[in-house]
Amino acid sequence: MAGVYISYPFCLQKCTYCNFSSGVYPAAAQRRYEAALLTEIDHHRWGWRPETLYLGGGTPSQMELEVLRGVIACIPTESLVESTLECAPGSVTAERATAWAAMGINRVSLGVQSFVTQELRRTGRKHTAATVESDMSLLAAVGITNVNIDLIAGLPGQTTVSWEASLGWIEQLQAPHVSVYIFEIDDDSALGREATLGGVRYGAEFLPSEDLVADCYETAVERLARLGIPRYEVSNFARPGFESRHNLKYWQLEPYVGFGLDAHSFDGVMRTNNTDDLDTYLRTMEEHGGPERGEVRADTEEEHFFIGLRLARGIEPSAKEWLRFGSAIERSVSAGFMKNEGGRLRLTDRGILISNDVLQEFVNV
Question: Which of 8, 27, 127, 224 could connect to 57 by a Cys-Cys bridge, CB 3.0–4.6 Å?
Fold first, then answer.
C-alpha cells in the first residue's frame, strides 16, 4: 500500500550544514503555508488508502497542535500502520506528546545529529544530550517508543573519541532505530560555502578527513550491530521490526504522494515534484488552488539498481536488467564493490563506503 509525505519547511533556526528547502520565515508566511497545505491535501483525489504517513521538514514538531490535527484530518487514516513525525530535540513537551499520540503519531524521528555539545554548537543546534534523554522519556510516557535518532558522521571538530561518545548515548537510550548520515559538503549550505571558500566560520577549518569519517561510519556499523541494531539500508539501522515502513517504500519503488514545498510523489510510473521555492508555492496555491509541479517518467529498471541497491539485502535483477546492466555489474563485482550471490546483488562493505559513486554506474545506461 502507498504512503503519504507532508512537508513542513519551517525551523526556529537554519542549521549550518542544511541544504533543504526549509528555514526561518515570517509568521505570516507560515500561516499562508498552512492554509495552502490544507487546500492541496483537501483537493487530492484518493484512489487508495495510505499505509504510512511521514511528516518532515523543516520542523513539523513545531506545528501548532490545532493545525496538525487539521492536516491529519484531511488524510484517510483508517489503514495507517505507521505515522512518523520529525522532531527537533527540545520541541517535545508533555502536552505535545500526549496530543501527538492521540492523533495517531506512533513513531518519532529526532534530529539529534550529535550528542557532543561543541559539535552541536558549531552547527547552530542548541540542544544537549540531556535534552534528547528528556524528549525520549516524554515520548515513552505516552506510548511512543518507536524512536529514530539521526546522527551525522563528519561534523566539524568530530573525532573518533567524540563519535564513540555519541554512540554510547545510543546504547544508553536504547533507541530502536538509528540513521547515520555521512556529512557531505554542499555549496547550498552555509557550512559548505564556507568550506569551499577556505573560510573558518561554522567550524569549517575543523572538518575531519575523509578517512576519519569512513572510520566513524564503520565504527557505527560494528557497534550498532553488537547492540542488535543491524544496518538494513546504507544510512539506516534498526532492531528487527523497527525498520521505517515509510522509507522502505522509497527504496522498494512503492507508490507515495507528497504534499507541500518540494514534496515528491511516485505512482509507479510517473515522478512528480512540487516547486522548492516558497513564494512560488504560496502564489500558485493561492491563485490556482494547486502547486507548480515538475513531472518525469520513471526509469524503474535504472531505479531498481540506483535505489534498491541501498538496501542491505540487495536486489534480484530481472532477465532484462541483467542484459541492460551486465557490464556495469561485472565492473562493480570485479572491483569488489558488489557481490553476486546466486543472482542476488548487494553492495559490499567497501562498496557501501563509496555507494554514490558505485550506484552512478547504473544511471543513463
Answer: 8
- Ramachandran quadrant class, 218 (left: phi over 0; alpha: psi -120 to 50; beta: rest): alpha
CB atoms closer than 10 angstroms to residue 64: 11
Please tell me the distance from the alpha carbon of residue 146 to that of residue 171, in angstroms, as a whole number: 15
Classified as helix, coil or strand, 354 is coil
Q: What pTM was estimated for this model as a whole?
A: 0.93
Strand positions, DSSP E, the chain: 3-8, 52-57, 82-87, 107-113, 147-153, 177-182, 231-233, 236-238, 256-259, 264-266, 270-274, 293-297, 338-341, 344-347
Report which of 66, 3, 79 is spatially closest to residue 38, judged by C-alpha positions: 66
Q: What share of the chain is helix, strand, coil (3-state, %, to 5)?
A: 45, 20, 35
Residue 364 and residue 279: Cα distance in Å, rounded?
33
Per-residue model confidence as pLDDT tens digits over 16-61: 555 555 566 789 999 999 999 999 999 999 989 999 999 998 899 9
- Note the pLDDT tens digit of each residue in 151-205: 999 998 899 999 999 999 999 999 999 999 988 766 566 666 566 656 656 566 6
Residue 271 per-residue DSSP state: E
Average pLDDT over residues 271-298: 96
